Amino acid sequence: MFHSGPSGARFLSVRRNAALALLFLLAGVAGLSARPQPGSTRQAGESRPDPGFWKLPAAVQPMPAAQGSRELLDAPSRALVQSGADAYCTLMVEFSSPAAREAFRAPGVTVYSAFQQFADVFVPGTAKPEGGSCDEAAIKAIYGAPGLLGIQYGRIVQVEPPPLLKRGAATRAVPEEVVRGGIAGVKGKGVILVVFDSGLDFRNPDFITYDAAGRPTSRLLYLWDPTSNAWDTQKLGGAAPFSYPNGASLGTLYTREQLTAELRSAGPRIPITDEDGHGTGVAGVAAGNGNNARGKGYQYIGVAPEADIIAVRNGWSYQEYSFLLNAVIGWVDQVAQRAGEPVVFNCSCIFDLYGDHDGNSVQERQLNARFADNVRGRAIVISAGNEQLNGYHSRKRIADRSRAAQLVWAAPKDGGVLRLYVRNADGTAFDGQDLVLDGGKSADGKPLDLSRRWAGPVPLSNDHLTALAVPGGWSGVWLWSKSGKDATVDAYVAPGAFDIVHRSPENTVGLPGMARQAITAGSYDWNDQFDQGGQKLTVVDVCGGVMRIGELSCYSSVGPGRDPSFVKPDIVSPGQWFTASYAKQPNGQGVNAPHPWSVDTSGNYVLFNGTSASAPYTSGIVALMLEKKPALTVGEIRGLLHKYATQDSYTGKTPNPSWGYGKLDLGAVRAILNAIR
Questions:
Q1: Please, are residues 519 and 382 in contact by the beta-carbon 8 Å criterion?
Q2: H/E segment holding residue 10
């Protein structure tokens, strides 16, 4: 089954089957990745994982890539495979040098975006209701390319052939004061804010300006909807910045002029552009102008209400177009160069919860290259994630058998995969032969099958990975070091969770938030008040407790990550709770059928929280910084945030894995802006 949408593009996902999950994991180590887990829920909009893996060095002999590519698994969806539709595998590839990337040629492989040594490519594929595959010859050609360093798989996307038409171009606390409507006259003017999310309701007045005669003008420079084939089929909007190998446009691109014409037209022609509402809420926190609350003093105005906006949909509930992130950055960079404006990218999204957590995925390494310290007028802010209490991580110290460590976990009915990343305490490379797994049992008392596993070194680190397929229900195992050397084990179970006494909140920042050069934002509690039904209500935190204003949000993912050379998150910003812009359908009906209690009295705003909210707040602050000094470098922006972040009784001494360098409260924002000359 495939997750479908208006464009007819469909994506394969992973079924919860332990044996096949391990096969996919093994293929992932050879270059493939797992798909999002079906049935997973979104907390504050962040979806389940899309893990990627590094290609192993030649000295290690993984399963051949082609073998793994025969089994790409599926998840529940809205439609079956279309007959006659084209299918493509999406890959992110890294070479040893820009020259090696430029020299790369392979039959059937289409490079649609490239930067330095990185390339994002399409490979022909096939799609069936029971699964799909990638073209073996093309995959082998990529693996045989000179200078190949790493491969990360994205999705299999199915797209209709283009039509034969001519193509064109608790106790209520006083809310903490936060930045709204800019500060000291700085409102983000002349800065582009990019929202890479579920879309944006461009008809929402918070993203419209009105002249004296009441005529609307869209604040969006562009709205790119990869899920829509409105351009190819109806000639609405324009061609997207990229095309599929078969010539079909990779969605539809609308300009400010086209969006404004739609706003001034008698009836709607452009289809819905945010079916989830998450992206509209994100944009409202960062840059909404508060027009929907004009009668209440624009009380829900965003941080940078005069910023220009570019919105790019990353799919539906599974973020199916997450593979486009770096391609979007490259395209927007060209737009910004022509406009002469600085840019801040906001990604309130987590693509992978269960990967290496060391910042070395191909996607994260390309982000590091695009946002090098000396790059001027650019920044990217990414959510840390909402996984602190989800229980999918456990950290253990092991040595000899007398100091063995126990792991106990539960997996869903169809099983899951247990991953063990092991590193010697002295930092030296861990010998995989030194790890002993023993005494494993499942809930029914049967011995745990320890034969269904893969083991090998983790590239670009001294870690060793052992991956084990585990059955559904409760299971456990003992771990120790045969040599007796002290070592640390970071264990991840997916899908599933460790017993409460075995789970560890640290190292839960997900991909791409572990990118060293990104500004990764955690969340703290700043407000427990909400105007609903004409009354001021008190809301509790999402974990069910009474909030303490100023405290770290109960869900905010914790670092520092498995690479000890840098700390994540970078900073923690206001996240719980915002009242944010509410997305609606063209007929005025609200999207995503939220609980009535989550919609405010006016019907135009909704409760919104999570690191999905703290990230756009941070992005709005960065937009203010760039208005003051458009030539700020990535290194200067991160340095100012780190230097002036607040330390208080909640944060303790910083930097630390929970708060990063501290809190982005109002005092920190004022200090940062005052320091910019």
A1: yes
A2: strand 10-11
- 459's CB contacts (< 8 A; 6+ apart) are 54, 55, 56, 57, 150, 360
275: left (phi over 0), alpha (psi -120 to 50) or beta: alpha
As a whole number of angstroms, the distance between CA 185 and CA 204 comes to: 24
Cα dihedral 541→544→549→554 (10° resolution): -80
Sorted by where each begins, the domain ranges of the chain are 10-159, 192-388+509-675, 393-498
Residues near 270 by beta carbon (within 8 Å), at least 6 away in sequence: 202, 230, 236, 237, 254, 258, 259, 262, 586
Contact at 8 Å (CB) between 364 and 621? no
Q: pLDDT of 186-228, one tens digit each?
A: 999 999 999 999 999 999 999 999 999 999 999 999 999 999 9
Q: Which two tokens stand for residue 300?
A: 């829900």
> Angle CA(24)–CA(28)–CA(31) in degrees, nearest 5?
135
Where does 393-498 sit in CATH, by number?
2.60.120
What CATH number labels 192-388+509-675?
Answer: 3.40.50.200
- Residue by residue, DSSP assigns 408-419 as EEEE-TT-EEEE
Paired residues of 573 in beta bridges: 523
What's this model's pTM, rounded to 2 decimal places? 0.83
Other Cβ atoms closer than 10 A to 446: 11
Average pLDDT over the chain, rounded to an integer: 83
Structure-token pair, residue 79? 């439609």
Task: State both tokens at 93.
Answer: 């590839």
SS3 readout for 282-343: HHHHHHCCCHHHHHHCCCCCCCCCCCEEEEEECCCCCCCCHHHHHHHHHHHHHHHHHHCCCE
Q: Count of CB atoms within 10 A of residue 505's CB?
A: 17
